[in-house]
């Protein structure tokens, strides 16, 4: 637990500060960009995510999972060198295919969308390089370096994009250009400083075996990532088809805020925990790892559950205060997507059993099933309820994903739930919901009323857990302070 806390102290800034910057960036973009143009940007960004996941993003998962194994054999240099070679080939091939495809479909899309997709070629390539290098940093437990470059990447990307909008009257293309430029600069700096001298191309007869091992572990994760994207972003395309790009912009802003509220903190916990879980499994075996995952699940419930209930209470306050009138209707999306994000964050802990035992094809199957359910339900719900139908579909699909993973993971790697912690967190979160929805309902929508409500919840929730003697609240407080 001590090592987890040490890494959390580095990973928290690497996620909190970029998220704060991104939050203010969303505030700026919703005032500087029309919903339709922002919707076009989201469609391009979504497509970049799909291509990255299928084409080369899976190597990042292989880096994190397999690095420790090869390090114990003193083959870590060969492992990284071989995967660098494989990555360079794949990112070049898929970036070229992207460019060719966009050229071929030029006459079938709007000119505005075509321009954004062409710029997205560079963004796809440069982001892929940066995320690959960051995965190596995570595998090597270099959390401080990861923290610093994550913060720099987001800050300079946002600053440059806003500068391009103001100085050159650009629109959403400014976000794609700035993200690509900053990513490739930071990636080049990290590689030159930390990897170039230590990891020259030490290729030998084992390289093919290493790449094959990485493929067998990682590529099913590409399928899982693809299924996850079907779950999380395929609705953007259907909203565009049934309603239009403006609705995509409004829905995506609400979705993004909801996602940030849960997956931000869940991501911090998993960033710090996963390398430790891998080390625990490789050195101490299955049963000690189960205990660690149970402890992490308890921490997850304590920290995430109040966010779900709090978002249900103050979603309208958040949207009206921070996003402005053009995007005001996005508030209806927040409670549903936040609950769905809670389910998917919880599923990440369950899926560790498949990742540790290298049976990642299970994750692919479950995400694919849930993704197909999401598509079918979106086709039915969006024409009837508008983009809020996509939010309904999200929570149903994520819950199906959670149930499937739970049922199959318990066969060989039992997921032990900390029921006492869950019950206490649920009671405290319900009390927070009642306070925000009823006792404070007379307050008008303003920044100060929102700040007051958040402060009340932030103070009351841990006090309630202390009163109920919830163990992780006590332990985390002692560790941090």
Give structural notes.
- The chain starts with a helix and ends with a helix.
- It contains 17 helices and no strands.
- The protein is globular, with a radius of gyration of 22 Å.
- By secondary structure, it is mostly helical.
What is the helix/strand order? Answer: HHHHHHHHHHHHHHHHH
Give the % helix.
Answer: over 70%
The beta-strand count equals: 0
Coarse structural class: mainly alpha
Roughly what fraction of the amino acids lie in strands? under 5%
Mean pLDDT across every amino acid position:
87
Q: Spans of 5+ residues with little confidence (pLDDT < 50)?
A: none
Number of helices: 17
N/C terminus separation: 15 Å
Estimated radius of gyration: 22 Å
List the helices and strands and how they pair.
Blueprint lengths: L1 H31 L2 H38 L3 H29 L6 H29 L3 H26 L4 H23 L11 H26 L1 H9 L2 H40 L1 H37 L11 H17 L1 H5 L4 H25 L1 H23 L9 H21 L7 H21 L3 H10 L1
Helix pairs in contact: 1-5, 1-9, 2-3, 2-4, 2-7, 2-8, 2-9, 3-4, 3-7, 4-6, 5-6, 7-13, 8-9, 8-13, 9-10, 9-11, 10-11, 10-15, 10-16, 11-14, 13-14, 15-16
Task: Summarize this structure briefly.
The chain is mostly helical. The protein contains 17 helices and no strands.
Search tags:
481 residues; 85% helix; globular
